[in-house]
UniProtKB/TrEMBL annotation:
Organism encoding this protein: Chelatococcus reniformis
Family note: Belongs to the leucine-binding protein family.
Gene Ontology biological-process entries: amino acid transport
CDD domains: PBP1_ABC_ligand_binding-like
Name listed for the protein in its UniProt record: Leucine-binding protein domain-containing protein
Keyword hit for tRNA processing: no
Domain named Leucine-binding protein: residues: 41-391
Length: 402
């Protein structure tokens, strides 16, 4: 009887293939190979701890610290404890560059994990990758965090686990246009990398549906008065307003729309899908739709490991967990998962091989699992639609793609 060896796992062959794979990676990509000792693994992150995104960054760092406590209490990564160094960018790209240089050159970090904001992640990313340091799971869903340029070996050091703005906007717009029978969509977006990604998502999906937006308006980061933009878009006859905004801008736009009697359906990009929007916006944001990929669990109904996590967060920080806390926690836990998969000889090449192995990371929050390959450094594109009802987000539809 003939036997095929194609599907057999032969230990010696598998081990040899793994070694060859790691060596091939090492020859192609330059690694800093710092921040890993027999006792610890040093991770870095730059966050907005003093500027307009402080409300995002503080819970993100809390979630990261909770994950580090959990990993270290369980013995660390093959006996190595995780140590996190946090630098404040203040949402300023120039400060983010200086923070990154300090983390790489002085703190000797092994990887940058969960850095905050599109412009502040983009500004130092070239320096970081050229230095041979991983850019892992930043808190921006812009394409530059995962898109691999042909021939750019150092791009393989960047991985994204957030739902990307372009893809999630496309999926959400497709769902809304098909189910709501809207005919005149329009867009208001922040004038930066994030906002332009939302614009691209809307434009691409409408082109696929042979529909034209009736209006597009922009605003500068930090703006607080949206009366001119809302008046202009209202005048177009827009019946579906898509927002490339963040927390306070979302609330301000919807408040202005209600004040002027503009009865329009509003769809937010993923940064609007956070608890603070209904908590602070109250009746002004009732009915808001948003793209998202996880719902913050309710402590009153949670059970098992999820309830334990929510209790531990509340006890540690004195406040309930929110979406940002979950994302921060997941960033560190995903790193820990792939660092363990890399084996005891943890270095740049072995971690890259683990990340590109296709093995999934699944969290305790029922989010879609993430997984990567040598040609795909984006973890997932599965989208939900959620809506604010009675002051809280509820899932309307899930498992969406475009």
């Amino acid at each position: 009887m003939k036997r095929s060896f194609a599907g057999m796992l032969i230990p010696g062959v598998v081990a040899a293939a793994a070694v060859l794979s790691v060596h091939a990676i090492a020859a192609e990509v330059k690694f800093a190979d710092q921040g890993v000792s027999g006792a610890e693994i040093v991770l870095g992150t730059h966050q907005d701890m003093s500027g307009p995104l402080k409300g995002w960054s503080v819970p993100v760092v809390n979630g990261m610290r909770l994950a580090i406590d959990e990993v270290n209490a369980a013995g660390g990564i093959d006996g190595r404890k995780l140590r996190l160094v946090v630098e404040d960018s203040g949402s300023d790209p120039k400060k983010a560059v200086l923070a990154t240089q300090k983390l790489v050159e002085k703190d000797k970090i092994f990887a940058m994990v969960g850095a905050m904001g599109s412009p502040t992640v983009l500004a130092p990313q070239g320096y970081l990758l050229d230095a041979g340091v991983f850019q892992l799971f930043p808190f921006t869903a812009a394409e530059f965090t995962f898109k691999l340029a042909p021939g750019a070996a150092q791009d393989r050091l960047k991985f994204a686990n957030l739902l990307p703005y372009v893809e999630s906007t496309r999926a959400a717009v497709k769902y809304m246009m098909q189910t709501g029978k809207y005919k005149s969509p329009c867009l208001l977006h922040q004038d930066d990398e994030y906002g332009r990604n939302v614009l691209d998502g809307l434009t691409q999906q409408l082109e696929a549906m042979k529909i034209q937006p009736v209006g597009v308006a922009t605003y500068k980061r930090g703006a607080s008065d949206f009366s001119a933009q809302t008046a202009r878009l209202k005048a177009t006859g827009c019946d579906l307003l898509v927002l490339g905004t963040v927390i306070r801008e979302t609330i301000a736009v919807m408040t202005e729309a209600k004040r002027t009697g503009w009865d329009v359906t509003v769809l937010g990009a993923t940064p609007t899908n956070v608890p603070e929007v209904p908590q602070l916006g109250k009746e002004n944001v009732e009915g808001l739709y948003a793209a998202g990929y996880l719902q913050v669990p309710d402590a009153a109904t949670a059970t098992g490991a999820l309830k334990d996590w929510l209790t531990a967060y509340d006890k540690r920080f004195g406040i309930p967990a929110n979406t940002q806390a979950i994302l921060g926690y997941n960033a560190v836990m995903a790193f820990a998962t792939y660092a363990r998969l890399a084996g005891k000889e943890l270095n740049g090449a072995s971690l890259l091989a683990a990340l590109e192995s296709g093995k999934p990371y699944a969290d305790i929050f029922r989010s879609p699992p993430i997984a990567f390959s040598p040609t795909n450094h984006l973890g997932s594109t599965v989208t939900q639609i959620q809506q604010v009802k009675d002051g809280r987000w509820e899932v309307v539809s899930e498992g969406l793609t475009f």
